[in-house]
């Protein structure tokens, strides 16, 4: 298994541009999520999904959209990039939401800079 | 709202020391608690998961304990090595099934 994969690894955008961060997992996990990690702020949840066709907002959803058309893929869209969205973005998955025995698997991250 | 605090924020020790990293949380209604390791520029790797009904878990030189009633967990690292240098994060998952992360402890083990 490849686990959780993210593309691209690095991206530089100009203010106002849009883009999609890709996330895929090959473990048939139901639960997937997106986090951003900023110095001194820790990991903050952006959006999450408990299964195909179901998404919900996390702690910091503004400026981001998600969709979950398949179990495997959970793309994160930046609608109009702002410098405040400069961060490292992590995608994570786990087998079933809320099951006590399930650990989370993280992707390697996408480092995004918005100029 | 669940809040997770990790102390200390940073730690620098000589090789061979036994270490204790602390994690505290405000809401004891949790499903599980996980400890993760993050190397610079990398994603998070799960080290140990403790279910709410368990008191501790062990993996090699790592031992994690959980005291739900006091809202505390500790990660014990025995005989630390330079390869243990990384940031260690704890995360608790409760009724909303959304994990809440602490900000991590940055560990440096020098030879």
SSE blueprint:
The complex is a heterodimer of chains A (115) and B (111).
Chain A: E1 4-7, E2 10-13, E3 19-25, E4 31-38, E5 42-51, E6 54-57, E7 64-66, E8 76-78, E9 87-94, E10 105-106, E11 110-114
Chain B: E1 4-7, E2 10-14, E3 19-25, E4 30-38, E5 44-51, E6 56-59, E7 62-67, E8 72-77, E9 86-94, E10 99-101, E11 105-110
Parallel strand pairs in B: 2-11
Antiparallel strand pairs in B: 1-3, 3-8, 4-5, 4-9, 6-7, 7-8, 9-10, 9-11
Strand content of chain B: over 45%
- Mean model confidence by pLDDT of chain B: 94
Structural class by helix and strand composition of chain A? mainly beta
Shape of chain B: globular
Biggest sheet statistics of chain A:
7 strands, mixed
Bin the helical content of chain B.
under 10%
Largest sheet of chain B: 6 strands, mixed
Distance between the termini of chain A: 36 Å
Instruction: State the total count of DSSP E strands of chain B.
Output: 11
Could you spell the SSE succession of chain A in H and E letters? EEEEEEEEEEE
- Oligomeric description of these chains: heterodimer
Computed structural class of chain B: mainly beta
The number of distinct β-strands of chain A equals 11
Q: How large is the share of residues in beta strands of chain A?
A: over 45%
State the helix count of chain B.
0
Shape label of chain A: globular
Radius of gyration of chain B: 13 Å
Mean pLDDT figure of chain A: 94
